[in-house]
Amino acid sequence: MLVDTHCHIHEASYKLPVSDVLQRARETGVEKLICVGTSEESSRQALNFSDQHDGVFATVGVHPHDAKDGVAAIGDLVATKHKKLVAVGEIGLDYYYLHSPRDVQIAAFEQQLQYACDANLPVAFHVRDAEKANENTTVWRDFWPVVSNFPKLRGVLHSFTDSHANMERGLVHGFYISANGISTFTRDESQQEMFKNIPLERLLLETDAPFLTPRPFRGTMNEPCRVSEVAKHHATVRNCSFDEIAHHTTRNAEALFDIS
């Protein structure tokens, strides 16, 4: 069994027929998937979508792009204690586009972390650096102090592609590290080395569908069934079996998100 821990197939912009997508997921062993909210509207859609489909769970959160719009509604959604709500996310900091100012992003991030801690929910972190980051602008310089203020925080570094050092720092915080299609096609040798060194007991798999389609399906819309291609890749580069990757990543997902 596999778990797609991060996708967006619940959103209106997703163009593939949902019934077909879910059927293909089941046929490739993807029995559980998590639809991730990125705004108030998207979060409500994720919850509603999870209600309609077995094996589908949801998160609620405001993406850092939309932090300027406020996050109070996320607190209200968390307070409902919806039976399929498994995390707060995706939330964090994004200095690549700066659709919301940095100080606004940080404040929204902190507030949503408080919602997660108050409800004892894990967090799906979105962390993206500036295109030409340096020690004075890097997103990680702001990210680590914020999360350090929440010592009981649990979560996953979603779509992680950063340095081995930041991966190790995430592990020290007890976070999981999530790999997706990028790991199958990146030509960055340091990234590939980092992916190979994520401990199996901390590795999660995702698609981020409809984005980041893995090889050999580049150029097509991503969907949860493609998480099996990510699993195959990691089995190959680690010289282990597909079943071993599936076993560890499924167990990790069930532990973090309480979806066993």
Walk me through what this model shows:
By secondary structure, the chain is α/β, with parallel strands linked by helices. It has one domain (2-257): Metal-dependent hydrolases (TIM Barrel), CATH 3.20.20. The protein has 10 helices and 8 strands. An 8-stranded parallel beta sheet has the order 1-2-3-4-5-6-7-8. The longest helix is centred in the middle third of the chain and has 18 residues, at 102-119. The protein is globular, with a radius of gyration of 17 Å. The mean pLDDT is 96.
Strand content: 15-25%
The secondary structure category is alpha/beta
Tell me roughly what share of residues is in helical segments.
Answer: 40-55%
Task: Give a quick account of the main beta sheet: strands, pairing sense, barrel closure.
Answer: 8 strands, parallel
Q: What is the count of β-strands?
A: 8
Oligomeric form: single chain
Total helices: the number is 10
Domain count: the total is 1
- Rg, please? 17 Å
Q: What is the CATH first-level class name?
A: Alpha Beta
Q: Write down the secondary-structure element order.
A: EHEHEHEHEHEHEHHEHH
Q: Which fold name fills CATH's third level, the topology?
A: TIM Barrel
> Alpha-carbon distance between the termini?
12 Å
Form type:
globular
Low-confidence stretches: none
Name the CATH architecture: Alpha-Beta Barrel
The average pLDDT is: 96
* Main sheet strand line-up: 1-2-3-4-5-6-7-8
